[in-house]
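Problem 12. The chain below contains 174 residues. Write out its predicted structure in token notation.
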Amino acid sequence: MAPASDQGVTAGAAPKPSIHATCIAIGPNGVLIRGPSGAGKSTLALRLMLDPPRILPPATLVADDRVLLEVTQGTLIARAPDALAGVIEVRNLGLRRVPHLFSVKVNLVIDLAAADAERLPAPDTQLQNIEGISVFRIAVPPNADAALLLAAALSTAEADNISSNCALHPLRNF
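Solution.
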């Protein structure tokens, strides 16, 4: 049996939720990567750690495969179970040890292979309630470049007051 700390349990406390996901930190941004088995959660994390888009600093691993979540002072915190801390699965190489952070504040979630992904998502679909905390969500369709979408989300501002029905909209016909 694994020690209680591996399960995210302290004596007398209820277990913290553990989810099948990966979590990285990009600067101060905790990014929770979710998706079905084989969707590329670990691969996306590894790409963002080793070869991020130029506009982003390299990511740091927090947790791979299993992520413990807890709310502390109104903040969603992610960390790895002790037995998995600093370990990431690299397809065709196996489990690898990498530098990692103990925990991070989660403020963005990426859902890979999301069936509800939309080309122009409504603002209300871009928020996800996790453990009672509202987190910005990017729904990534199958085969889309999740690293590019994440880079755009972290490095650009939302365009306000643009109407797709406006004849003067420069991208209307494209």
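Discussion. The first strand starts at residue 18 and ends at 20. Students who got a different answer should revisit the alignment rule from Section 12.3.
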